[in-house]
Amino acid sequence: MARREVHQCMWLLSFVLVLIVSLALQVYAQPERGPSADVRSNKTISMDFDQVDIKVFIKFISELTGKNFVVDDKVRGKVTVLSPSKISVEEAYKVFESVLEVNGFTTVPAGKVIKIVPSVEARQKSVELRRQPTFVPRPDDRIITQIMPLLYADSQEVRKLLAPLVSKQGVVIAYEPTDILIITDFQSNIQRLLNIVEEIDVEFQEATITVIPLDHASAESLAQKVSVLLESKQKTAKRRRAEPPLKIVPYERINVLIVLADRLNTQMIKGLVKTLDQHSDPALCVNKGSPPN
Length: 293
Hints:
Blueprint: H1 2-29, H2 37-42, E1 44-45, E2 48-53, H3 54-65, E3 69-71, E4 78-82, E5 87-88, H4 89-102, E6 105-110, E7 113-118, H5 119-122, E8 128-130, E9 143-149, H6 155-162, E10 171-175, E11 180-186, H7 187-200, E12 208-213, H8 219-237, E13 247-251, E14 256-261, H9 263-276
Parallel strand pairs: 3-7, 8-9
Antiparallel strand pairs: 1-5, 2-4, 6-7, 9-11, 10-11, 12-14, 13-14
Helix pairs in contact: 3-4
Protein backbone atom coordinates (compact mmCIF):
# COMPACT_ATOMS: atom_id res chain seq x y z
CA MET A 1 0.00 0.00 0.00
CA ALA A 2 2.82 2.35 0.87
CA ARG A 3 4.55 1.53 -2.43
CA ARG A 4 1.39 2.49 -4.34
CA GLU A 5 1.20 5.82 -2.55
CA VAL A 6 4.86 6.51 -3.39
CA HIS A 7 4.17 5.83 -7.11
CA GLN A 8 1.19 8.20 -7.04
CA CYS A 9 3.27 10.93 -5.41
CA MET A 10 6.06 10.51 -7.97
CA TRP A 11 3.56 10.66 -10.87
CA LEU A 12 1.97 13.81 -9.44
CA LEU A 13 5.38 15.42 -8.96
CA SER A 14 6.36 14.60 -12.55
CA PHE A 15 3.12 16.11 -13.87
CA VAL A 16 3.72 19.33 -11.91
CA LEU A 17 7.31 19.57 -13.23
CA VAL A 18 6.14 19.10 -16.83
CA LEU A 19 3.48 21.77 -16.34
CA ILE A 20 6.02 24.25 -14.91
CA VAL A 21 8.47 23.66 -17.76
CA SER A 22 5.69 24.06 -20.34
CA LEU A 23 4.58 27.38 -18.86
CA ALA A 24 8.19 28.59 -18.71
CA LEU A 25 8.74 27.74 -22.38
CA GLN A 26 5.61 29.67 -23.37
CA VAL A 27 6.82 32.74 -21.52
CA TYR A 28 10.28 32.68 -23.10
CA ALA A 29 8.90 31.90 -26.55
CA GLN A 30 6.91 35.15 -26.72
CA PRO A 31 8.68 37.92 -28.71
CA GLU A 32 10.13 40.79 -26.76
CA ARG A 33 8.00 43.88 -27.15
CA GLY A 34 9.36 47.39 -27.31
CA PRO A 35 7.81 50.34 -25.58
CA SER A 36 4.30 51.21 -26.73
CA ALA A 37 3.53 54.34 -28.73
CA ASP A 38 2.10 56.00 -25.62
CA VAL A 39 5.25 55.26 -23.64
CA ARG A 40 7.45 56.58 -26.46
CA SER A 41 5.39 59.77 -26.81
CA ASN A 42 5.84 60.60 -23.13
CA LYS A 43 9.51 59.68 -23.03
CA THR A 44 12.24 62.34 -23.02
CA ILE A 45 15.87 61.75 -23.93
CA SER A 46 19.14 63.58 -24.35
CA MET A 47 21.10 63.17 -27.57
CA ASP A 48 24.89 63.43 -27.39
CA PHE A 49 26.75 61.99 -30.36
CA ASP A 50 30.30 63.04 -31.21
CA GLN A 51 31.45 61.92 -34.66
CA VAL A 52 29.54 58.63 -34.57
CA ASP A 53 28.84 56.59 -37.69
CA ILE A 54 25.60 57.78 -39.28
CA LYS A 55 24.26 54.21 -39.44
CA VAL A 56 24.72 53.88 -35.67
CA PHE A 57 22.70 57.08 -35.29
CA ILE A 58 19.99 55.72 -37.62
CA LYS A 59 19.80 52.50 -35.57
CA PHE A 60 19.42 54.55 -32.39
CA ILE A 61 16.50 56.51 -33.87
CA SER A 62 14.92 53.30 -35.16
CA GLU A 63 14.95 51.74 -31.70
CA LEU A 64 13.79 54.98 -30.10
CA THR A 65 10.82 55.61 -32.43
CA GLY A 66 9.93 52.07 -33.49
CA LYS A 67 10.24 53.06 -37.17
CA ASN A 68 11.68 50.70 -39.79
CA PHE A 69 14.40 52.15 -42.02
CA VAL A 70 15.88 50.92 -45.29
CA VAL A 71 19.26 52.60 -45.70
CA ASP A 72 20.83 53.20 -49.10
CA ASP A 73 24.45 52.02 -49.48
CA LYS A 74 25.45 55.60 -50.33
CA VAL A 75 24.41 56.79 -46.86
CA ARG A 76 27.77 57.14 -45.10
CA GLY A 77 29.61 59.54 -42.85
CA LYS A 78 29.94 60.77 -39.28
CA VAL A 79 27.45 62.90 -37.38
CA THR A 80 27.62 65.07 -34.29
CA VAL A 81 24.52 65.94 -32.28
CA LEU A 82 24.67 67.87 -28.99
CA SER A 83 21.49 68.20 -26.96
CA PRO A 84 22.13 69.74 -23.50
CA SER A 85 18.46 69.52 -22.53
CA LYS A 86 16.11 66.57 -22.83
CA ILE A 87 13.71 66.44 -25.76
CA SER A 88 10.69 64.33 -26.66
CA VAL A 89 10.79 61.41 -29.10
CA GLU A 90 8.88 63.47 -31.68
CA GLU A 91 11.43 66.29 -31.39
CA ALA A 92 14.25 63.74 -31.63
CA TYR A 93 12.88 62.53 -34.96
CA LYS A 94 12.79 66.10 -36.30
CA VAL A 95 16.42 66.51 -35.18
CA PHE A 96 17.16 63.24 -37.01
CA GLU A 97 15.65 64.60 -40.26
CA SER A 98 17.66 67.82 -39.87
CA VAL A 99 20.87 65.85 -39.35
CA LEU A 100 20.17 63.86 -42.52
CA GLU A 101 19.45 67.08 -44.45
CA VAL A 102 22.72 68.68 -43.31
CA ASN A 103 24.64 65.59 -44.46
CA GLY A 104 22.91 65.44 -47.85
CA PHE A 105 20.35 62.70 -47.11
CA THR A 106 16.60 62.58 -46.59
CA THR A 107 13.73 60.23 -45.71
CA VAL A 108 11.22 58.88 -48.24
CA PRO A 109 8.17 57.01 -46.80
CA ALA A 110 7.46 53.72 -48.61
CA GLY A 111 4.61 51.83 -46.97
CA LYS A 112 5.65 50.35 -43.62
CA VAL A 113 9.27 51.36 -44.04
CA ILE A 114 11.12 54.63 -44.53
CA LYS A 115 13.88 54.83 -47.10
CA ILE A 116 16.96 56.90 -46.31
CA VAL A 117 18.58 58.05 -49.56
CA PRO A 118 20.81 60.85 -50.88
CA SER A 119 18.77 64.03 -51.27
CA VAL A 120 19.69 64.40 -54.96
CA GLU A 121 17.97 61.06 -55.69
CA ALA A 122 14.88 61.66 -53.55
CA ARG A 123 12.99 63.77 -56.09
CA GLN A 124 13.01 60.78 -58.48
CA LYS A 125 11.33 58.56 -55.92
CA SER A 126 7.75 58.43 -54.61
CA VAL A 127 7.98 61.41 -52.25
CA GLU A 128 4.86 62.85 -50.64
CA LEU A 129 2.71 64.92 -53.01
CA ARG A 130 0.75 67.88 -51.64
CA ARG A 131 -1.88 69.33 -53.94
CA GLN A 132 -2.78 72.41 -51.90
CA PRO A 133 -0.45 74.85 -50.14
CA THR A 134 -0.40 73.87 -46.48
CA PHE A 135 1.32 76.01 -43.87
CA VAL A 136 2.86 73.79 -41.18
CA PRO A 137 3.84 75.37 -37.84
CA ARG A 138 6.98 73.21 -37.63
CA PRO A 139 7.88 71.91 -41.10
CA ASP A 140 10.11 68.84 -41.45
CA ASP A 141 13.48 68.59 -43.17
CA ARG A 142 12.34 65.96 -45.67
CA ILE A 143 11.76 66.26 -49.38
CA ILE A 144 8.20 66.58 -50.69
CA THR A 145 6.54 67.73 -53.91
CA GLN A 146 4.22 70.71 -53.60
CA ILE A 147 1.62 71.73 -56.19
CA MET A 148 1.28 75.51 -56.00
CA PRO A 149 -1.59 77.07 -58.04
CA LEU A 150 -1.31 80.78 -58.82
CA LEU A 151 -4.24 83.19 -58.97
CA TYR A 152 -2.72 86.30 -60.53
CA ALA A 153 1.03 86.00 -61.10
CA ASP A 154 2.52 84.48 -64.24
CA SER A 155 3.92 81.01 -63.53
CA GLN A 156 7.06 81.48 -65.65
CA GLU A 157 7.87 84.80 -63.99
CA VAL A 158 7.41 83.29 -60.51
CA ARG A 159 9.52 80.26 -61.48
CA LYS A 160 12.40 82.57 -62.48
CA LEU A 161 12.07 84.33 -59.14
CA LEU A 162 12.02 81.11 -57.07
CA ALA A 163 14.65 79.12 -59.00
CA PRO A 164 17.64 80.65 -57.13
CA LEU A 165 15.87 80.06 -53.79
CA VAL A 166 15.37 76.28 -54.01
CA SER A 167 18.04 74.02 -52.54
CA LYS A 168 20.64 72.23 -54.67
CA GLN A 169 18.51 69.10 -54.44
CA GLY A 170 15.28 70.93 -55.33
CA VAL A 171 13.59 71.82 -58.59
CA VAL A 172 10.77 74.19 -59.58
CA ILE A 173 8.69 73.71 -62.76
CA ALA A 174 6.10 76.08 -64.23
CA TYR A 175 3.03 74.65 -66.01
CA GLU A 176 1.78 77.60 -68.04
CA PRO A 177 -1.62 76.32 -69.32
CA THR A 178 -3.08 76.42 -65.79
CA ASP A 179 -0.49 78.67 -64.10
CA ILE A 180 0.72 76.06 -61.62
CA LEU A 181 4.13 75.66 -60.01
CA ILE A 182 5.44 72.17 -59.17
CA ILE A 183 8.16 72.35 -56.52
CA THR A 184 10.19 69.45 -55.14
CA ASP A 185 12.35 70.46 -52.18
CA PHE A 186 12.73 70.16 -48.44
CA GLN A 187 9.44 70.86 -46.70
CA SER A 188 11.04 73.54 -44.53
CA ASN A 189 12.25 75.41 -47.63
CA ILE A 190 8.94 74.96 -49.45
CA GLN A 191 7.29 76.64 -46.46
CA ARG A 192 9.52 79.67 -47.08
CA LEU A 193 8.68 79.65 -50.79
CA LEU A 194 4.96 79.52 -49.98
CA ASN A 195 5.35 82.67 -47.90
CA ILE A 196 7.10 84.43 -50.79
CA VAL A 197 4.46 83.37 -53.34
CA GLU A 198 1.70 84.58 -51.03
CA GLU A 199 3.28 88.05 -51.10
CA ILE A 200 3.74 88.27 -54.88
CA ASP A 201 0.66 86.39 -56.14
CA VAL A 202 -1.59 89.42 -55.90
CA GLU A 203 -3.84 91.24 -58.35
CA PHE A 204 -2.08 92.75 -61.34
CA GLN A 205 -0.27 96.01 -60.99
CA GLU A 206 -2.03 99.20 -62.02
CA ALA A 207 -1.88 99.70 -65.78
CA THR A 208 0.26 102.48 -67.17
CA ILE A 209 0.22 104.37 -70.47
CA THR A 210 3.24 103.99 -72.75
CA VAL A 211 3.92 105.70 -76.08
CA ILE A 212 5.87 103.58 -78.56
CA PRO A 213 7.19 105.47 -81.65
CA LEU A 214 7.40 103.57 -84.96
CA ASP A 215 10.14 103.95 -87.58
CA HIS A 216 8.74 102.03 -90.55
CA ALA A 217 5.40 100.36 -89.93
CA SER A 218 1.97 101.98 -90.05
CA ALA A 219 0.59 102.57 -86.54
CA GLU A 220 -2.91 101.39 -87.47
CA SER A 221 -1.77 98.22 -89.24
CA LEU A 222 0.73 97.32 -86.53
CA ALA A 223 -1.83 97.94 -83.76
CA GLN A 224 -4.21 95.47 -85.42
CA LYS A 225 -1.49 92.87 -85.89
CA VAL A 226 -0.20 93.08 -82.31
CA SER A 227 -3.76 92.96 -80.92
CA VAL A 228 -4.48 89.78 -82.88
CA LEU A 229 -1.26 88.16 -81.61
CA LEU A 230 -2.07 89.04 -78.00
CA GLU A 231 -5.65 87.75 -78.28
CA SER A 232 -4.33 84.49 -79.72
CA LYS A 233 -1.84 84.11 -76.87
CA GLN A 234 -4.50 84.76 -74.21
CA LYS A 235 -6.86 82.19 -75.73
CA THR A 236 -4.07 79.60 -75.89
CA ALA A 237 -3.05 80.21 -72.28
CA LYS A 238 -6.62 79.61 -70.98
CA ARG A 239 -5.87 81.57 -67.84
CA ARG A 240 -8.24 81.25 -64.92
CA ARG A 241 -7.24 84.51 -63.26
CA ALA A 242 -8.53 87.97 -64.09
CA GLU A 243 -6.71 89.57 -67.02
CA PRO A 244 -5.18 93.05 -66.61
CA PRO A 245 -6.53 95.87 -68.80
CA LEU A 246 -4.92 95.92 -72.23
CA LYS A 247 -5.51 98.38 -75.04
CA ILE A 248 -3.46 99.50 -78.05
CA VAL A 249 -4.46 102.77 -79.76
CA PRO A 250 -2.74 103.82 -83.01
CA TYR A 251 -2.03 107.55 -83.47
CA GLU A 252 -1.35 107.98 -87.17
CA ARG A 253 -0.51 111.69 -87.10
CA ILE A 254 2.92 111.09 -85.54
CA ASN A 255 2.93 107.33 -86.21
CA VAL A 256 3.02 106.01 -82.64
CA LEU A 257 1.21 103.39 -80.61
CA ILE A 258 -0.39 104.38 -77.31
CA VAL A 259 -0.44 101.31 -75.06
CA LEU A 260 -2.49 100.89 -71.87
CA ALA A 261 -1.20 97.78 -70.07
CA ASP A 262 0.56 96.46 -67.00
CA ARG A 263 4.35 96.07 -66.88
CA LEU A 264 4.53 92.50 -68.23
CA ASN A 265 2.22 93.12 -71.18
CA THR A 266 3.96 96.41 -71.96
CA GLN A 267 7.30 94.60 -72.20
CA MET A 268 5.72 91.96 -74.42
CA ILE A 269 4.22 94.58 -76.75
CA LYS A 270 7.53 96.45 -76.99
CA GLY A 271 9.21 93.20 -78.03
CA LEU A 272 6.59 92.53 -80.72
CA VAL A 273 6.81 96.08 -82.04
CA LYS A 274 10.61 95.90 -82.25
CA THR A 275 10.31 92.70 -84.29
CA LEU A 276 7.51 93.84 -86.60
CA ASP A 277 8.55 97.46 -87.17
CA GLN A 278 10.64 96.61 -90.23
CA HIS A 279 10.81 97.54 -93.93
CA SER A 280 10.25 93.94 -94.95
CA ASP A 281 6.43 93.89 -94.49
CA PRO A 282 4.76 96.10 -97.14
CA ALA A 283 1.38 95.82 -95.39
CA LEU A 284 2.82 97.60 -92.38
CA CYS A 285 4.77 100.32 -94.17
CA VAL A 286 3.77 103.95 -93.79
CA ASN A 287 2.48 105.50 -97.01
CA LYS A 288 4.94 108.36 -97.60
CA GLY A 289 4.62 108.89 -101.33
CA SER A 290 5.92 106.07 -103.44
CA PRO A 291 5.32 102.46 -102.28
CA PRO A 292 8.33 100.38 -101.24
CA ASN A 293 10.15 98.45 -103.96
